[in-house]
Amino acid sequence: MKKFNSFLLRNQHLLMFIFIVLIATLVSTDMYARMGGAGGGSRSSGGSGGGDGIGALIFYLFMMLPFPLNWIVVIALVVGIFVFSKLKKQGSILNKVQGSIIPGKKDVKGLAAYKQLHPDFNEEQFVQKVSKAFTDIQAAWSEKDISKVRRFISDGMYQRVNTQFKMMNILKQKNILEKLEIKSVIIDKIETDGVFDVIHVGVYASIKDKFVSESYANLNSASFEEFVEYWSFIRKNSAVAKDMYNTYNCPNCGGDLSANMGDMCKCPYCGTITNSGEYDWVLAEITQADDYVTTSHLHDMSNTLANKVEEISDSDSEFAVQNIEDKASNGYLQIETARVMKDPKLMRRFVTDEYYNKFEIEIKSASHFVYNRIFLNDVTLIGALQKDNKNILALSVKSSYQRVVINGGKAQLLDMAVTSKNEVVMMSKDILSGQNKGSIYAHQCPSCGGTISDTTDLNCPYCGSQINSTKNEWIISDIMSQNDYLNYFRENSNLFIANVNPKKFDAMYKVRDYAFNNILIMIAADGVFDAEEIDFAKKMAKKWGYAPSKIEGMLDMAVNNQLVLRMPEDRKDREKIYKLMVKTAAVDGNVSPEEQALLDNVRAQYLS
Question: How many angstroms separate the Cα of 160 from the Cα of each of 156, 167, 323, 557?
Answer without folding.
Answer: 6, 11, 15, 22
